[in-house]
Amino acid sequence: MELAQLPNDPFMLLSFINMKLRDCYNSLDELCEDMNINRDELVNKLQSAGFEYTPEQNKFW
């Protein structure tokens, strides 16, 4: 899945990614590998909206 296929709105993307992290994956790396998402692009897109990944919580804040 390419980043372009994910929700474009940063809040929808945040919600989608956090739901997947909570329900299906133990880490962001695992999610990105399984869903074939470029980790850097995803992190940059969410960071540009003010969100940061916290590995200890396994979610973006």
Low-confidence stretches: none
Q: For the largest sheet, list the strands in their spatial order.
A: 1-2
Number of domains: 1
Largest sheet: 2 strands, antiparallel
Supply the number of helical segments.
3
Helix content: 40-55%
Mean pLDDT: 96
Structural class: mainly alpha
Rg over alpha carbons:
10 Å
Q: What letter string, H or E per element, gives the SSE order?
A: HHHEE
Number of strands: 2
Shape, please?
A: globular
Distance from N terminus to C terminus (CA atoms, Å) equals 23 Å
Strand content: 5-15%
Give your account of this protein's structure.
The protein is mainly α. It has one domain (3-60). 52% of the residues lie in helices and 7% in strands. It is built from three helices and two strands. The longest helix is centred in the N-terminal third of the chain and has 14 residues, at 10-23. It is globular, with a radius of gyration of 10 Å.
